[in-house]
Every structure is written in C-alpha cells, then in structure tokens.
Amino acid sequence: MLKCDSRKVKPGDTFLALKGTVYDGHDYILKAIENGAIKVIAERGAYSVPTEIVPSTKEYLSNYLKEKKVPIKMIGVTGTNGKTTTCWLIWQLFHSLGIPCSYIGTLGFYIEEKETDLQNTTPGSLDLLELLEKSYEHGCKYVVMEVSSHALEQGRVDFLDFDYAIFTNLTQDHLDYHLTMENYLKAKLKLFEKVKPNGVCLINGDDACASYFERSNSVTYGYSSCDYQIAGENQTFTINEEEYKMQLIGKYNIYNMSAAISLFYQLGYNYEELKEPVSKCSSPEGRMDTISYQTNCIVIDYAHTPDALENILDTVRELNYHKIITVIGCGGDRDKGKRPIMGEIATRKSDYVIFTSDNPRSENPMRILKEIVMKLDSVNYEIEVNREIAIKKGIQFLTKNDILLVLGKGHEKYQIIGSEKIFFDDKKVVLENI
User: Fold this and answer.
1) Backbone phi and psi for residue 384, each to the nearest 5 degrees, phi listed first
2) 104 pLDDT band (50/70/90 cuts)?
3) Fewest CB atoms less than 10 Å from the CB: which of 199, 304, 367, 417?
C-alpha cells in the first residue's frame, strides 16, 4: 500500500516522499524503511530499498489518486458552523432508511458505528482514499463527509467528484491560515467546483454569501424566498408547509436539519418517509450535550466561533433560565482576530463568564486570555487559566434554575499544550464534580 506518512508505514508498504508546506517527506525516508517500507518513491536520493525517482512526488500522487476511483456517491458539507451536525444528521437518516452510509469528519470515521478517530476533520488524500475503499467494501452506497477549508486549500479532495455539496454558512474563523475572509470564501467555493455536472449544490439561501455558491445546479433552503422554505423557530418547524418535529433545539439546528431534509428530497424521498426518522435524530457528541444537576442544567458544546457562540447563547436565553454562566476560551496559534469578539459576545449575552484555556498550543495561555478581554468594558467575568478549575467554579456558581455552558471543546478528549496532547474531557470533569 502507498503511504506518505512514515508513522503509518507497515511492512510491505511503499513510501512516497511528499514535500508539504511544513515538512518534507524526504527527511522521513529512513524512518519509513525502518518501519518496513519495501520501496521508496522520491525526487532525489538513493536508499537501501528499490527507489523510484520522479520529477514531482505531488504529481505522482495526483495521478495515482485519479486512477483509484471508488464507485460510491459522495456528499460533501462545508461551512464555518454546522458541518458536523449536518453530516451526523444525514448519516443517521440514511441508516434509519436502511441505506448503508459512512461518515467522515470531526467525530471520526463511522460506518455502522465508530471505526476510528481521525487526526483531521478531512483526512489527507491517501488516508481518505483508504476510508472510501473501506466504506465501499462494507457495502456503503453513500459517504457523507465534512470538507474543511484547509482540506480544500491544500487539495486533499482534488481527486474526488461530488454528487452533492452543501453550504451551511460563512462567518469569521481560520483567518490565521487564510488571512482574509475573501481567501476563506474562495477556499470554501472549491468544493462546488468539484460537483459533477449532474450533481446538486444545496445552499443556505439566508447566508450573506449564498450568491457566491449558487450554480445552475443549485437549490436553496432557508427562511427567505428559497426552494425549500423554512418556517418556525423551535423543535417543531415546517419545510414547504410540511411539519417536522425534532429533538435538537435552536434555530441553527433547524438550518442543519433543513439541509439534511433538503438533501433527501433531492434524493427522491418524501415527507411521509422522512418525518419519523427526523424525529428520532439526535445531536452528535459534544453538541448541546446536556446534563441535569439539581434544578440546573449544564451544557457541553463545541461552539468556538463568534457566530456559534452567539447562536448557542441566544438559544439558551429563550429557555428562560435564571442565570447563564459561560466557561469559554480561544485556541492558541489560531485566528487572533476573533478573540476580543468572542469576549464581547460572551459577556454581553451571559450573566457571568469564566474565561479559561482552550488548546493554547505554543502560545502563553494568559496572553490569549488577555487578548480576549482587552476591549471589554463589562465586569461580569473572571479569568481562570486552569480549565478544570474554571469548570468547577462554574458548577459552584449554579444556584437555582441556572444554566452553565462549557464551550469550545465539545467532543474533544484532550488539551493541546505546547506540542503535547494531554487527556482532558470537559464532560468527565463536569460529571466528577456534580
């Protein structure tokens, strides 16, 4: 099997030395051979195993991938927020309808159940090919996958043609990588260039950037004048005047569910076939994950962008809890521009906020926290750099009919400090302290 990550090489594999933006695979050829590679494909050098020298290993990989078409229907979902939930809902609906489908994304790789965790939301090309082949071998008719802007920019899905592409929304995130919102938008648009001529693009028609994504083969969903017209803002809503009920809460989840329903309409399913499966769909792990505590409620959620934070705070405000207490931070080595925005939204829409660490990576955690609060006029917050202590404090602040939001990490079971991944689970900390 062809591998381009020396750590994944097993005896009998061929190692392809790819040059990336940070690492050069040629530096890891000896390690690949040590791990059992019996052949090397590289742009230079001579090694102890048969070696094929090519002008460009990147071009070699591209040609290799083009020859490896997997006969399976591809559904790609992109956007700043909602990718994971939308894909998760689609995956559940397929299984409810008896259609074999796999899911690839933030939560890992699933067929009937979870197969494995993934290092990236959208894996590298060779890893992705391996997952598609495994899906096909297990009889999957469809693959639904989250397609990140990083993956699109780096060409990880260039070898694929999509049957369906869904755009959820576009708000500020990842500007550490894309630098400008224009570049971020252009990266997202690449998915829609990969849709087959007879494929369909499903667009959130309410998003400010919707017009950029629309094509001759596109349909829209939303509250405005759309092909699939939404009405209602609670767990009971309508699409084209047909009423659905769902377990998920929040207007943003109506968008996620509507994207999924719109896809199934395009696949030929009707309201009568969908209404019961829709009512049974659940949230993915770490998305509005709710725990009861005395008369209070504790919610663990992945919200880590300004838009997602505002959405969840607006949603819980409508639930009429006495006080909203929020524990949140911002990741290190990531979009610094959103930090003061997150601070402002959190303090304006919460009764009290505890700002804390969230994957500080190579940055000083206290510096990140100071950048979050640097423009705040309000005083309804405190800083606690230790995330475990911050969560414990949040629980202690609960009195009667309050809600505690523990935000930013959701399903993640780690903190990234420096270059180390250290086990940390928000939900575990909560359950141990109530």
Assistant:
1) -135, 105
2) very high
3) 367
Which amino acid, one-letter code, is at 55? P
Residue with tokens 């009195």, as numbered in its chain: 399
Question: Would you say 319 and 310 are in contact if contact means Cβ atoms under 8 Å apart?
Answer: no
Alpha helices in 174-280 (DSSP H): 175-178, 181-189, 210-213, 251-266, 271-280
Whether 173 has a pLDDT exceeding 80, the answer reads no
Rounded to the nearest angstrom, the gap between the alpha carbon of residue 283 and the centroid of all alpha carbons in its chain is: 14
pLDDT (tens digit, 9 = 90+) per residue, 228-275? Answer: 999 998 899 999 999 999 999 999 999 999 999 999 999 999 999 999
Q: How far apart are CA 331 and CA 416, in angstroms?
A: 9
State the Cα–Cα distance between residues 387 and 100, nearest whole angstrom: 40
Contact 133/102 with Cβ under 8 angstroms? Answer: no
Residue 426 has, within 13 A of its CA and on its CB side, a CA count of 33
The count of other CB atoms within 10 Å of the CB of residue 11 is 8
Do residues 141 and 267 lie in contact, with contact meaning Cβ atoms separated by under 8 Å? no
Instruction: Give the count of alpha carbons within 13 A of 279, CB side only.
Output: 11
For tokens 């725990």, the residue is 291
**Which tops the pLDDT comparison, 282 or 177?**
282
Note every long-range contact of 108-115, with CB atoms under 8 Å and residues 24 or more positions apart, other chains counting. 111/135, 111/138, 111/140, 112/138
- What span, in angstroms and rounded, lies between the C-alpha atoms of 134 and 100? 12
| Dihedral-angle region of residue 418 (phi above 0 means left; psi in -120 to 50 means alpha; beta otherwise) | left
Tokens of 299: 């919610």
DSSP code of residue 143: E
One-letter amino acid at 171 equals: T
Domains located in the chain, CATH noted: 2-66 (3.40.1390.10), 73-280 (3.40.1190.10), 289-432 (3.90.190.20)
Strand ranges, E, within 348-425: 352-355, 381-383, 403-407, 414-417, 420-423
CB-CB contact of 41 with 25 (8 Å)? no
Tell me how far CA of residue 123 lies from CA of 4, 358, 398, in angstroms: 12, 23, 40
- Residue 285 identity (one-letter amino acid): E
Count the Cβ atoms, other than its own, within 10 Å of residue 254: 24
